[in-house]
Amino acid sequence: MGDIIKHIDSIKKDREANMSSFEKHKAEVKTVRNKINKLLDKLEKDIDEKKNECKEKIQKITSELEKKINRNNIEEIIIEKEQYLQTGVDNVEVVVDTGLHNIMNIVHYLKTIGTFDIKTHKRFFLQEPSTVTNKLFLKGKYEIIDNIRLSLQKKISISQSNSTCIRGCCISPNEQFLFTDRFKCCVYELNSECALRNTWFVGPTFGYGIVCVDAQTVVISSGIHCFKPGLAILNLKQQKKKTFIELPGRTYGVTKDGQSLFTCVQNHGIYEINLTDFKTTRIIRCDITSSSHIAVYADKIYYTDNNEDCVICCDRKGSHIWTFKDVSVLQNPRGIAVDDGNVFVVGEMTDNVIAISSNGNNYRELLTKNEGLSSPSAIFVDRKKKNILVANTGTKAFLYNFSVQ
């Protein structure tokens, strides 16, 4: 009986110790909770202060912006009125009846104020848009990529062979689909119904980039061919080579603008070829990497660098404008095309097509694996009909119509 009582006392003491420990932990939790509450209160206070600070800055900027806009509007009105008042017309006589008898004295005094001369002439004003207007306009222009909408028109089977390596594509003026196959050194021509019409072997070139000069003539770059690098000009109607333009290095991407061809020559730079006399000029000296593709729009040149996973934009003299690089969305860029300053690029390793804004700061992913892309390598944009042709390295290609909404 004594042992039982002793055992009960032991259990009682143990429970009391547990309760004491529990109260101790409870107090510790309460202390920590108070510290957390204080920290959260401080954080909330800091956020409120920052929010108010930002709000004040925004209000200040808004006020300054409104003043500037109002000032610019006033300046525009003043210039407009000044232009109206000072615009003269040749051979028009203006008679002013001032009611004064000695008008020549007034003219004399006017001429003695500084070195003014009174002449009859036409007056033209070229007013530069305000900075605010420029920013608003450019902002809207750069946001075009967010409003691009694609509509699938056709899925194309380029070849029945599994050993293809498509590197270039385009649509001819008579709506024929053309694809270069580097493995087979040939060009596939498919009609508007996507049926294979012809296959041309383009040796000694391997067949890389391709661009149409007209409905019967295409230009094909040699690619990795190192014995005779350059551009082959083919007549599709006569099914024969018209001429070959030899270049100093491996020749990859090629495009046409006006009456000139532009092409990437590895380790040498970008060359321009006049289509009238085939005169060749290196317009940009730069270290072009292998497999670079090129596009030209207005006064700008765009080309890809798959070694650095980037897209470069420069003017026609080679002055750098911007570089786009984001390996999370674009790796091993291949084909490139431009419409209205917006750049379309295929990522071979990222299995996608992205649109880059004309200032190079923004991008949008347009097509991915979900749309059937698998190592895409080539892209072509028909600016008039608003079509985009995208080709995989394998046997599949896709025709989309695009619009800006």
Question: Can you walk through the features of this model?
Answer:
The protein is built from 3 helices and 24 strands. By secondary structure, it is α+β, with helices and mostly antiparallel strands. The chain has a domain of 254 residues: TolB, C-terminal domain (Neuraminidase, 6 Propeller), CATH 2.120.10. A hairpin with a 5-residue loop joins strand 4 and strand 5.
Question: Top keywords for this entry?
Answer:
alpha+beta, elongated, 405 residues, four-stranded antiparallel sheet, Neuraminidase
Largest β sheet strand count, sense and barrel closure: 4 strands, antiparallel
CATH architecture of the domain at 151-404: 6 Propeller
Helical coverage, percent range: 25-40%
**Helix/sheet category:** alpha+beta
Name of the level-1 CATH class of the domain at 151-404: Mainly Beta
Q: Could you say what the CATH topology of the domain at 151-404 is called?
A: Neuraminidase
Q: Widest sheet: strand order?
A: 1-24-23-22
| Proportion of residues in β-strands | 35-45%
Mean pLDDT, all residues:
82
DSSP strand count = 24
Order of helices and strands: HHHEEEEEEEEEEEEEEEEEEEEEEEE
- Poorly predicted regions: 81-141
Distance from first to last alpha carbon: 93 Å
Number of helices: 3
Spell out the CATH superfamily of the domain at 151-404.
Answer: TolB, C-terminal domain
